[in-house]
Specification:
Layout lengths: L1 E4 L5 E4 L3 E5 L17 E9 L4 E7 L3 E8 L1 E6 L4 E5 L2 E6 L4 E6 L6 E8 L9 E6 L11 E4 L9 E2 L5 E7 L4 E5 L3 E8 L2 E5 L2 E5 L4 E4 L4 E6 L3 E8 L3
Parallel strand pairs: 13-14
Antiparallel strand pairs: 1-20, 2-3, 3-4, 4-11, 5-10, 6-9, 6-11, 7-8, 7-10, 9-12, 13-15, 15-22, 16-21, 17-20, 17-22, 18-19, 18-21
């Protein structure tokens, strides 16, 4: 089953330096029908002006993933971690027992990224931060696995404390990929257009759209143009 959420229907926030589209209730955007999708609690599609960003603020017991779409983000936290994560790279942070961090756009170009929060399956773990650059070129092996909470994936994917997987990457026009689903999935059209096939039916996502996929063991995606797509497979509560 597919449920489509067009970009124009998402929750919106405009703070001047920050423009955000909220797939779920967040901050001043509240929609009781959109409080999350199982353990997937937050997806924010953020635009950050050059020279601005998020000053130090706390998090606790949440797995926070950032998928950098363009520009670069500078991270610093109370555990002593520092790093610059450019476009095409992914960063993860386990807030655990509590962490303070800041994120800034120190470049002269706008920063765009997806901020994704997933509820952990272990609470009060030691805070941690990590990042990794994944291949950005189109390949015929399907979408790369970016993030995983399964031990068998930890040699090539970033680790989080939840039995979830996040796939993402570039697709060429008319390229078709099949992504397995262990629980339920949320699909993001990061760039271009992508069609989701479902038992003879189809739903086309434009850039910025999202879609919930339920009651399926896999999802078939077909790029309608040069595209970038993210698939988040996370469990119910």
């Amino acid at each position: 089953m597919i449920k489509h959420f067009p970009h124009q229907n998402l929750g919106k926030a405009n703070h001047g330096w920050l423009r955000s589209s909220h797939h779920f209730s967040f901050a001043h955007y509240y929609n009781p029908a959109r409080m999350g999708f199982g353990t997937l609690r937050v997806i924010n599609d953020d635009w950050v002006a050059p020279g601005t960003g998020f000053p130090p603020h706390p998090h606790r017991n949440m797995e926070i993933i950032s998928f950098i779409r363009s520009g670069a983000i500078t991270h610093q936290d109370s555990e002593g971690n520092k790093g610059i994560t450019p476009a095409g790279e992914v960063q993860v942070m386990s807030a655990g027992t509590g962490i303070m961090h800041s994120e800034y756009n120190r470049t002269k170009e706008p920063l765009t990224f997806y901020q994704i929060w997933i509820e952990p399956n272990k609470i009060d773990v030691p805070p941690r931060w990590d990042s990794k650059l994944f291949p950005s070129e189109v390949n015929d092996k399907g979408l790369p696995l970016l993030v995983s909470g399964y031990p068998e994936d930890n040699n090539h994917a970033l680790f989080i404390h939840q039995h979830a997987r996040i796939y993402g990457g570039s697709l060429a026009p008319q390229q078709e990929v099949v992504v397995p689903i262990a629980h339920q999935a949320y699909v993001l059209a990061s760039k271009g257009k992508v069609t989701i096939l479902d038992n003879g039916k189809s739903v086309t996502l434009s850039e910025g759209d999202g879609a919930e996929i339920t009651k399926q063991r896999e999802v078939t995606l077909v790029a309608e143009s040069d595209a970038e797509v993210i698939v988040i497979d996370a469990p119910l509560h």
